[in-house]
Automatic annotation (TrEMBL):
RNA polymerase sigma-70 domain span: 87-100
A Pfam entry, by short name: Sigma70_r2
NCBIfam families according to UniProt: SigBFG, sigma70-ECF
Species for this entry: Kitasatospora misakiensis
Keyword DNA-binding: yes
Domain of life: Bacteria
Organism classification: Bacteria, Bacillati, Actinomycetota, Actinomycetes, Kitasatosporales
Protein name: RNA polymerase sigma factor SigF
Amino acid sequence: MSGDLGTAEIHAEPAEAVQIPLQRAGAAPDGALDTRTLSRSLFVRLAALEPGSTEHTYVRDTLIELNLPLVRYASARFRSRNEPMEDIVQVGTIGLIKAIDRFDPERGVEFPTFAMPTVVGEIKRFFRDTSWSVRVPRRLQELRLALTKAGDELAQRLDRSPTVAELAVCLGVSEEDVVEGLAVGNAYTASSLDSSPSEEDGEGPLAERLGYEDLALEGVEYRESLKPLLAKLPPRERRIIMLRFFGNLTQSQIGDEIGISQMHVSRLLTKTLTQLREGLTAEG
């Protein structure tokens, strides 16, 4: 590249050279051309080249490399996110390429001004699509964002938390959609099962604090073990058991139902329960 000649030579191939006019190019203190001025000249040249040609590809790649500092500047805004900076820069570069392909130098807009929204938008889209712990449809992601915004606005206006019906009216969606959108928020973040507890949660990792002891589980085992034993009982004794323990009838009510005395019901219950208990013990 020579400042005296007023042109810059960019070698696409060893035997070829792309002449780029730099009549308005200003020189930086170290002799290098100003990045914006060079980019402007490259865009003018790019517009005159046939897409897909060797020269077009080389000038386009040069523009990408020349404007990578713009991507790094935009990516620095997201440094606090829990993603490697290399990945953020890579995503931002995709936005830069899209901006280069759409840029029209004749509009009189500086390329950095035109490209920055596209680069930042591509990075934000990346976080929107990958930050969820559980992948959910885009429609529900956008609905959750809309619900969050509408909820804040309604809370300020009503001085209380809005209801599902109020959110539905505000967004013009059904109440079922609102409930679904609110439930989706549980998929945004996930906690490790080995995470340490807070002071309010007690001791032990999260895996030891999830769930509770279901006392009915033991009853399931007993009921399943009793089924074959109940099936072997005579019809009258089986009916007494069903009325007493599943119908919650008293012995007197059972006697009236079957047509025997309360004392007789008591003796039959004692005999049958002993038989069932011995059957369970024998199976154990």
